[in-house]
Amino acid sequence: MAVNFYITGWLTASAGVGLIKAFKEYGEESFTVEGNKIGIPEELIEEIPRVLANILTENYELKESLSVKDALQKALSPFRNFHNNHVVINNSSIKKWAEEKEGKVKSKDELKKLLEEYLTHVIFENILKSKESEKACFFCNERKAYLKGREVSVFDATVFTPLSGSLETVNNFFYNGRSNLYLCKECELFFLFSSFGFTRTPRGTYIFAYVPDLMETYSINNMLHIEKEFSKEWFDRSVAEIVKNIEKEKADWLLSNIYFVELEPFGRDKSKIYTFSIPPRVARAMKRYLDEYPKNLNSLFGTFLEYIYSGRNLYELLLLILSGYLFSESYKKGGKLPPPIKFGTAQKFLPKYLLFFIKFQEVLDMRDNVEKQINWAYAEGLNLRKEIFRNAENEERAKKKIQGISYRLLDAVRRRDTDSFEQNVIRAYLEVEREIPYLFVEAMKSGAFNRIAYAFLIGLNGGNKGDGEPSE
Ligand SMILES: [Zn+2]
After folding, report:
1. 3-state secondary structure of 147
2. Taking the mean position of all CA atoms in its chain, how far away is CA 290?
3. What percent of the chain has pLDDT over 90?
4. Which stretches does DSSP call E strand in 99-221?
5. Which residues surround ligand 1, an ion (CB under 5 A)?
6. 381 vs 437, more confident
7. Ligand 1 centroid to residue 11 C-alpha, Å
8. Which of 12, 58, 61, 56 is nearest to 38 (CA)?
């Protein structure tokens, strides 16, 4: 007979992922996963203390010999933020049991043995040997909730602290401070695995990625464990990493269903819970184009992610870069600059790879097949630049001229003033006695203004091979 657990949302999914992970670590793969149901052979319930001891000591480093009590407390600490004061980790259980043990714990193997013994003792004594009540378990609806003394066991803050200790959710789960979510022995043990489903982030929070399919959820969360640099954008980068690595065939379905849960523990037994999902069109654009993100823009990657996750327009980002570039002298006098402006001030010319932001924004806006137009506008800007250099008395004057035109064009873009943009472009072309390209007629049509104006401005302030801009 199999003992079944049901995945109904991120909470049970985190337990499911943690359970799969822990059993695999233990070398036991006789569990089955079918849709939203995970089943483990009945006899494996008694193995749970050993499975837990195994995964708890897996990455544990025992640097010095410790007393039994201290060693247990340390080894059980991964549970603290998730199952605060659960019978498995509360200090009185540990103290009571450790009192009878003498000596020091000197090696990881010794610790693992002790943990096995301890967990077996406390899980059997307090949970598995308990009597059953008449109430059906809320989570599996197959088994009966057990009795804790006279009380029927329920899902409470000791079973999964973040949810129960979160002020926002507490009202949904409890009635007058009392939970009526009855809990059976097996489901209670099942929830102990949830802490292994989450990944601890460098900023001390925990994240879990969820899609409504357990095995997919399992493999997506495994992507989170890849070693990465510690940065303040760790979360944003991890989400991007997941999106990028989702298999192509499943991408559409997964990307429109994926969401992320982040737990931020504070105080002893409280957590803030943030959930986060990526709009499907953003996820799809990321999946398709993230690999093309220019290496030279790495210093802006975190900012780029912030913009697209929060739905801010990448043209705003470009406006800051261009402002930083064109007004670098006055910005440099100021204090700390936002990353896009800082990036702009550091450029000798506007590199062509900035077009990536235009192309990405256009994909986000569901406008396809505009790449050609963007490249064309860029090339036109670059050509006008060359003409101006050719016509000017000296380089200094050419640079000044380009600067003047760029100020006015950027201002027109900022104000979304297509008339002013058009007039300034016409004036610039007349001065070098060249025909105005048809493209600018197009630009004034709605929707195309931003992409043409920005690409043109980048080209107008672009670089040649000699400046360090690679040729095609
Ligand atoms: Zn149950």
Report:
1. strand
2. 15
3. 60
4. 104-105, 132-136, 144-148, 151-152, 174-175, 178-179, 199-200, 206-210
5. 137, 139-140, 143, 184, 187
6. 381
7. 14
8. 12
Q: Which residues contact 96 (CB under 8 A, 6 or more apart)?
A: none
| Closest by Cα among 377, 358, 373 to 436 | 377
Q: Which residue has the tokens 């929830």?
A: 191
- Asked if 155 and 173 count as a contact pair (C-beta separation under 8 A), the reply is yes
Q: Could you tell me the distance, in angstroms and rounded to a whole number, from the CA of residue 52 to the centre of ligand 1? A: 19
CB 17 within 8 A of CB 9: no
Residue 190 CA to ligand 1 center (angstroms) comes to 9
CA distance 128 to 393: 91
Do residues 6 and 37 lie in contact, with contact meaning Cβ atoms separated by under 8 Å? Answer: yes
Q: What distance lies between CA 366 and its chain's CA centroid?
A: 24
Non-local CB neighbours of 226 within 8 Å, separated by 6+ positions: 241
Which tokens is 143 given? 């088994």
CA of 182 to the centre of ligand 1 (A): 8
Task: Give the whole-angstrom CA distance, residue 72 versus residue 66.
Answer: 9
> Which residue type occupies 229?
E
Q: What residue spans define the domains of the chain? A: 2-195, 198-290, 295-467
- Find the 139 Cα to ligand 1 centroid distance in Å: 5
Tokens of residue 433, six digits: 């006695």
Angle, nearest 10°, between helix axes 449-460 and 395-414?
160
Q: What CA dihedral angle connects 174, 179, 185 and 186, to 10 degrees?
A: -20
Percent helix, percent strand, percent coil in the chain, to nearest 5 = 55, 10, 30
Q: What is the pLDDT of residues 61-90, one digit of tens each?
A: 888 899 999 999 999 999 999 998 899 999
Are 284 and 255 spatial neighbours (Cβ–Cβ below 8 Å)? yes
Predicted local confidence at residue 414, as pLDDT:
94
Interval 130-160: pLDDT, tens: 999 999 999 999 999 999 988 999 998 889 9
Share of the chain above pLDDT 70, in %: 94
CB-CB contact of 223 with 241 (8 Å) = yes
